[in-house]
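Entry 12.
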Amino acid sequence: MTSKRVIHLGCGQAFDPAYHNNINFDYITNDISALPGVKWCYDLNNVPWPYDDESTQTVLAIDVIEHLDNPKSILEEIYRILIPGGLLQLQAPYFGSLAHANDMTHKHGFTPSTFGFSYLVIHTVNPLHGIRVLDSQCHH
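Predicted 3D structure (tokens):
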């Protein structure tokens, strides 16, 4: 049976309307703060996460990876929990943008090459290894 689990990392209260209150998905919202509607209050820096290998259909990581201590370990953890053929939607700030510079909680900035040419990506979220990258972008 294919997992219908969708984990939305660091979502705060910005729930994805495609999955939120959709009975066809086990939509798990995550944030470090116990905000209303957050199902999994957890510090993502603490790996491994409490999910089995290949147990999650989709991971949404929208404007969260830049806040975490070690993006490489986070991408490895995402790869571990995604099912073969799973989806990762990733959005992160461009390293030279105001979006990156104006937020003192940002620990990392990224370029389009960050996710396309690093050794980690080739071995984790590359389509050749069974995971389709739905969205990998750096925004200004």
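Annotation: The longest strand covers residues 82-93. The helical segments are 71-81, 98-101, 112-117, 119-123.
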